Amino acid sequence: MRKRLLLMSVIILTLVISGCSLSGNKKNDSIKIASVVTTEGQILAYMMKYMIEHYTEEEAEVINNLGSSTVVHQAMVNGDANMSAVRYTGTDLTGALQAEPIKDADEALAFVQKEFAEKFDQTFFDSYGFENTYAFMVKKETAEKYNLQSLSDLASVAGELEAGVDTSWMNREGDGYKAFVETYGFDFSRTYPMQIGLVYDAVESGELDVVLGYTTDGRIASYDLVVLEDDLNFFPPYDASPFADTELLEQKPEVKNAVERLVGKIPTETMQELNFLADNNLIEPAVVAENFLKEHDYFSGGDE
C-alpha cells in the first residue's frame, strides 16, 4: 500500500512539474510586442496583440511603457521584443538609422523599409493609414484674435507669443528648432522646452500662447485647439507603421497576415478619436483597441 501511495505521489508531482514547465514555455514562446509610453502606442500594441491572438494560435504579450523609440529599437535589437506596435518614418530616419530627413512621404517609407531590412533584418510594414507628425497649435480664441491659419501667419505676431515645445525637438538636427527658425524666418518671444504631454494643458490653460504637439493627440479635439498648417512643408513625414523581426514573420507567416489586415485601415481622424477616448474619457487603451476591432469585425475581409 505504501508503495502504491509513493508511486501515486511521484506521478502527481511529475504532472505538476510538467504542467508548470509547459506553462512557462508557453509564456517564454509568446510574441513580445514593444510599446512606448504614449496612449497611441499602447492602443496599437493591444490591437496588434488581439489581431495575432484572433487569427493565429500564438499568444502575444505587450511590453508596455518603454521610454522612447530608441529604447524600443534597442529592445528589438537585443532580442527582448519581436515586434513594435508602431514606428514612425521621420523618427526612425534621424533616430535609429541616423539619416538625413526626407520630406517626400513615399521616399521616406521606401528608405526605412530598405535600410531596416538590410541592416537589422527587420520589417517596416506599410502605414496603418495615418501619420503623427509635429504641429504647432493654438487656442481657438488665439487663432481668431490674430487670424491664424498657417505657420506663416505667425510671422507678424510671433514676437508677442510664448511657445512650448517638445524637449527632444529643441536640439534635433535637420528638423528641430534651429532649422524651423531658419525656414520660417521668425522666432517666439520665449520658447520653453517641456515634456510633450504637458504642452496641451499649458496652451489650454493660457499659460502659453502656442505649443508644438502631435497631430493625432486626442486632446486637440478635447481642448478644441486649432492646428496651424505647415505651409512651407518644414516637418518631415511621420507615417505610422507596424514593425517586426523578419525572421519571426518568415517562421510564422500567419502573424504577418494578421498584422497586415490593419495596414491602411486607420486614418488620422480615427486615430485622434481613439486617443480621445483614452485621454479624455479615461477608457483603458486595451479596451479602446478591443472595441475598435470588434466594431470592424477584426477587419475580417482583409482588403475591404
Q: Main attributes?
A:
five-stranded mixed β-sheet, single chain, 14 helices, 10 strands, globular
Descriptive notes:
- This protein has 304 residues and is α/β, with parallel strands linked by helices.
- It is built from 14 helices and 10 strands.
- The protein has helices spanning 2-28, 39-55, 69-77, 89-94, 105-120, 140-146, 167-170, 177-184, 199-204, 219-222, 246-251, 253-260, 268-279, 285-295; strands at residues 31-36, 60-66, 83-88, 122-124, 134-139, 162-166, 190-194, 210-214, 225-227, 240-245.
- α2 (39-55) links the parallel β1 and β2.
- α13 (268-279) crosses α14.
- The longest helix is centred in the N-terminal third of the chain and has 27 residues, at 2-28.
- The protein is globular, with a radius of gyration of 23 Å.
- Mean pLDDT is 89; it is low at 5-26.
Write the layout of secondary structure elements.
Layout: H1 2-28, E1 31-36, H2 39-55, E2 60-66, H3 69-77, E3 83-88, H4 89-94, H5 105-120, E4 122-124, E5 134-139, H6 140-146, E6 162-166, H7 167-170, H8 177-184, E7 190-194, H9 199-204, E8 210-214, H10 219-222, E9 225-227, E10 240-245, H11 246-251, H12 253-260, H13 268-279, H14 285-295
Parallel strand pairs: 1-2, 1-3, 6-7, 6-8
Antiparallel strand pairs: 3-10, 4-10, 5-8, 5-9
Helix pairs in contact: 2-12, 2-14, 13-14
